[in-house]
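User: Hi! I'm a student and our assignment asks us to look at how structure tokens line up with a sequence. Could you show me two examples?

Assistant: Happy to help. In each example below, the sequence comes first and the structure tokens follow. Example one:
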Amino acid sequence: MSVSNITKRMMASFSEALYIIRLVEDSELSIRRTLAEINVSRSSFYRWYWAYNLVTSPQFMVMSAADAFQHPTRRVHELWQTDFTYFRVVGWGWYFLSTVLDDYSRYIISWRLTTTMAASDVTDTLDDTLKATGLTEARGHHKPRLMCMKAEEMTFWIDDP
């Protein structure tokens, strides 16, 4: 079966379209380059792909939520959550919002809006939180995904096991 004969008509039968699809899938080149070399338009290729139900749905795992937390907080200031959110203001640049939320009451204890995302901004927000709550100390657990938490300034706040 010749690809050039199929592409001249552009009305491929199932076996012809499947042949081209397999040819493209098995190629080491990109889809675009392979289709260009065999003179098949991308729109025709994807139309065949959809027409013959060859598009697979993404694999995902369905998770259901529990009725209650496994380890719920029982009092105010038992657990705090910190977060850094960034957003861009057109004409002004990037801004970073550092917040501390009480897990039990869901109340934002303190927040700071800064133009940097330095460790000092996090420590300043935590200092504001201590002042607002009247507590003298707070300990945190290290989250590897937070790059600013690895800063030397943060070692005072973090309990590493």
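Example two works the same way, sequence first and then tokens:
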Amino acid sequence: MYAYLFVFCTFEVHICKCNKIVKIKNNMNLENLLEKTKVIVEKQEAIRLKNGEHFNLFSVLNAERQENNTHSNFIGELLNPMGCHLKGTAFLEEFVKIINKSSNNAVANFKAEKANLIIEKFISNLVIDDKNPINSRGGRIDILLQDGNLNIAIENKIDAGDQKHQIARYRNYKKPKTIVYYLTLTGKDTDEYSSASLTAGIDYYCISYTNEIQDWLKQCLLITEDQPILHSNIKQYLFLIQKLTNTLNTKNEQELLNVMQGHFKEVKLIADNYAKYINIAKEDFRQEIKVRLEKLYPDFAYSFNSIANNNANIWFEKGNAIFGLESFNNCMFIGLWKTSTTQEMEGADRKSSYWPNTRTLTDSNNEVIDFRKEEFLEILLMDDVKRERLIQKIVADAKDFMDYCMTTLESEITC
């Protein structure tokens, strides 16, 4: 009996030691993987610095992630045979070739020479059929190409969420002549809320900025080699897409893939925990802002939603005064909720019918605080001094706006 216990205990100790060794080995593998990846990132950054890619007009103008004003308009202008590029159908023909390969020759018969293009095409009033979602219709198509026989409908997604039955609604426009493409940064599929049970690859097609759009832009660059201004503008846009999709140059991309080779578990572990890693930093940041606001306005009631929500926020209210500070996943603003007043104040911006009075929040360099940008995430994760400055600036600007509202709307707001 004692001999058995001795053997069993010895076995358990051996297992513990083995587990500890495995854990240490796994940690070493992770650290080694991260160190090698860091070297590749530094190489890519050196290339971008050398090429002057940090000066990008879209970035300077805070237009990196505007789906319609930036991306739909720029892509649409290049696709438009009547566009100011004066290249006729050259760009459109290349685009059709590329998306045709990604969609089982669905648009092989599209006639570029007969095409016209409409941005934000209104197709009809919205009709949502909850009993038969596939029959829903109406809305606005981001980019619509028509040749008189076939329609190419492109739903363009950078950050915006999907709308109800959106894919089904667009597919029903002049069905069966309309082919729908769902364009995202990575080529991810939509969900049933938007697709209404339609099937990707059969009823509609997923394309991406990572693959199809970059391939097309590179073809556009070849077409414009003898037109330096047009060529440069397209290249600026390509650089922006590479930034948004974290695209490496060919050499560095291959080096990264080689580093990942043989480290499936480690790569998956990092990928699976990335969102959690970011959200923990954002939540800590939000909580610290909330604590400081509570010290300034202790009589207000504070609440907030999930940090994973696209409109992650802090709401604080007293009487009929309801203020919101959002989004910790997007561009930040401080606003006065619609039920507090019907008056639009001078010195405030109308964001929507829900937010008639808002103020966009900026950092000390007057750059809009946007947590979709890497530079702001890096502040939260890696620079305590800049993080503190950012907290102080947000709290000070929020206080300034709140005090202004409560003074200006004194007769309407009861606190």
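Here is something you could point out in your write-up. DSSP finds twelve helices and ten strands in the chain.
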